[in-house]
Design brief:
- The structure holds two protein chains of two kinds.
- Chain A contains 13 helices and 18 strands.
- Chain A is an alpha/beta fold.
- In chain A, helix 1 packs across helix 4.
- Chain A is globular and about 60 Å long.
- The N and C termini of chain A lie far apart (51 Å).
- Chain B has a single domain, classed as Aconitase, domain 4 (Alpha-Beta Barrel).
- Chain B has eight helices and seven strands.
- In chain B, helix 7 packs across helix 8.
- The radius of gyration of chain B is 15 Å and the shape is globular.
- The N and C termini of chain B lie far apart (43 Å).
- The chains are: A alpha/beta, B alpha/beta.
- At the A-B interface, helix 1, helix 2 and helix 4 of A face helix 5, helix 7 and helix 8 of B.
Chain lengths: 398, 163
């Protein structure tokens, strides 16, 4: 029943660089081994390759711990971002209960997994026992009519929903997305929706397992799986209906993810740095959308632009299909797969007063660097059109 | 005296504990950088026993539990808010820093008020204004976790019982 506290056995437990903190807490519990080392997955992504000696030492400690306890599902520097790597390497299947020490663990809802973010201490508890306490969530249902217009993407759609719901509109709720706007979405786009559900407080963001999800899972998932969809008569605490057929590209303005405006309201804002990447929008279709705008062009001289693929596999596909060449020729700087500057750690942090147009997931004050820097969030196409002019530019105009 | 440090709505984890400090997990380091981008004076002047009071949806954003433990290591025994973001609420309980949900206390406590908490009675006392506020009772299981001092001591007890 919603509101009830239950203890449940988890199917998969993901940690990234913060496995350092988890392993420290795990040792404090005093159990001799991990409950099931095969159900633990650790990709390094937040600070890779190590930008400081301190980080390098932390990574080394985690590698040593991983060998010691026999964790086999370890993805070292450069394989990619946890939320891209887990589905890509086949760890995610519909109906699984997945916890991760990262708030954007909701991403796996794109493939019908009940996946949610937790803290390091409770992950240590999961490593020790395989179990964790959960509050059974109420569910909100979103019914969204499509198709999306030209140059309007899953990113615009979910930003619009976040703007309506605000940061805490779905706190502690499971949210489910339906409708013709969702049915047409690729696996990459579905991941963007599930990923950003977290930014309106959702505990999980679920999309019904459709043909796009099944095609992806058939290619990637390890072993057999069953599609999961909600019961016909499932009860919902609230239902929201939305028509996306006339939606404009959307931008989340500083300093909150729910400060969402149509791009036409903010066109012309000068931008110092453009970043395409992360677990939100660092996939093949994202870079292709950017390359389709920037091919044969040059980014504006007043700005700089970064491309960070969400994974090595994404990077390879972009290489093989000429996307890396297109973007590099346009003046884009390509960096190794990982989270990049999203959380203000390295690979392109912002200086005092600088403005960034980014395809990432958060724009809180100081998120990507200096406390006086500003971050605008939007789609990869909007990022590319903005790069072309060095100021926020509607991708429908290029 | 236990001084209240008050902040507004939607205080996010990026300002509670910025990403640039996450690689160092030392407790003293965490305490020294607590709330650095929210209130640069906090870490230098906070006293053990002081309480932090937020508005609605306190602790939204990242799952980083340093946003909780930086306060704990700075000597803060309770966080009060009109409401908490889900992961922050979990992290606070699991790390033994009781997150007290009280829209009334959140609205009425002013910065610098002398505030004490009676966890058993479910009451927050504001000695400066001579007011008392109720906070939401914790479900029974979470009470046990908090009574043990958080998830790690709770699990340690269970390990000892098994042995």
């Amino acid at each position: 029943m919603p509101g009830e506290i239950v203890e449940a056995t988890v199917d998969l437990a993901m940690s990234h660089d913060n496995a350092l903190l988890v392993s420290k807490k795990f040792k404090e519990i005093g159990v001799p081994q991990i409950w099931n080392a095969d159900k633990v997955v650790i990709p390094f992504d937040h600070r890779t390759p190590a930008p400081t000696i301190e980080v390098a030492n932390g990574h080394a400690q985690v590698r040593s711990f991983i060998r010691q306890v026999g964790i086999k599902n370890f993805y070292d520097v450069g394989v990619g971002i946890c939320h891209q790597v887990l589905p890509e390497k086949g760890h995610i299947k519909p109906g699984m209960l997945v916890v991760g020490t990262d708030s954007h663990t909701t991403t796996y809802g794109a493939f019908g997994a009940f996946a949610t973010g937790i803290g390091a201490t409770e992950m240590a508890g999961v490593w020790a026992t395989g179990r964790l306490w959960f509050r059974v969530p109420e569910t909100f249902r979103f019914e969204i009519q499509g198709p999306l217009p030209r140059q309007v993407y899953a990113k615009d759609l979910i930003l619009h929903v976040i703007g309506q719901q605000t940061l805490d509109g779905c706190d502690y709720r499971a949210v489910e997305f339906y409708g013709s706007a969702i049915d047409g979405l690729t696996a990459d786009s579905r991941m963007t929706i599930a990923n950003l559900s977290m930014e309106m407080g959702a505990k999980v963001g679920l999309l019904p397992v459709d043909q796009h999800a099944l095609d992806y899972l058939s290619l990637h998932a390890r072993g057999p799986f069953e599609p999961v969809v909600a019961d016909e008569d499932a009860p919902y605490e609230k239902e929201f209906h939305l028509d996306a057929r006339d939606m404009e590209p959307q931008v989340a303005c500083p300093h909150s993810v729910d400060n969402v405006k149509p791009i036409t309201d903010v066109e012309g804002v000068p931008i110092d740095q453009i970043f395409i990447g992360t677990c939100t929008n660092g996939r093949y279709e994202d870079f292709k959308a950017a390359a389709d705008i920037l091919r044969g062009e040059k980014i504006a001289s007043r700005t700089r632009m970064l491309m960070i693929p969400a994974s090595r596999d994404v990077f390879l596909e972009c290489l093989q299909k000429g996307i890396v060449t297109d973007l590099t020729e346009a003046g884009v700087t390509v960096e190794s797969p990982g989270c990049g500057p999203c959380l203000g750690a390295h690979q392109g942090v912002l200086g005092d007063g600088e403005k960034c147009f980014s395809t990432t997931n958060r724009n809180f004050r100081g998120r990507m660097g200096h406390i006086n820097s500003e971050v605008y969030l939007g789609s990869p196409a909007a990022a590319a059109s903005t790069a072309l002019y060095g100021e926020i530019t509607d991708p429908r105009r290029v | 005296m236990s001084r209240a440090w008050t902040y507004g709505d939607n205080v996010n984890t990026d300002v509670l504990y910025p990403g640039r400090h996450l690689a160092n997990i030392d407790p003293k380091y965490q305490a020294a950088h607590a709330l650095e981008d929210l209130d640069p004076g906090f870490a230098k002047t906070v006293q053990a026993g002081d309480v932090v009071v937020g508005g609605k949806f306190f602790g939204c954003g990242s799952s980083r539990e340093q946003a909780v433990t930086c306060l704990k290591y700075a000597g803060v025994p309770f966080v009060i808010a009109a409401s908490f973001a889900r992961i922050y609420y979990r992290n606070a309980i699991n790390n033994g820093l009781p997150p007290l949900v009280s829209p009334e206390a959140s609205a009425k406590i002013q910065s610098g008020d002398d505030v004490t908490v009676d966890l058993e009675a479910g009451l927050i006392r504001n000695r400066t204004r001579n007011e008392t506020y109720r906070f939401e009772a914790f479900p029974e299981f979470l009470q046990r976790l908090l009574a043990a001092g958080g998830l790690i001591p709770y699990l340690r007890q269970q390990v000892l019982v098994k042995q």
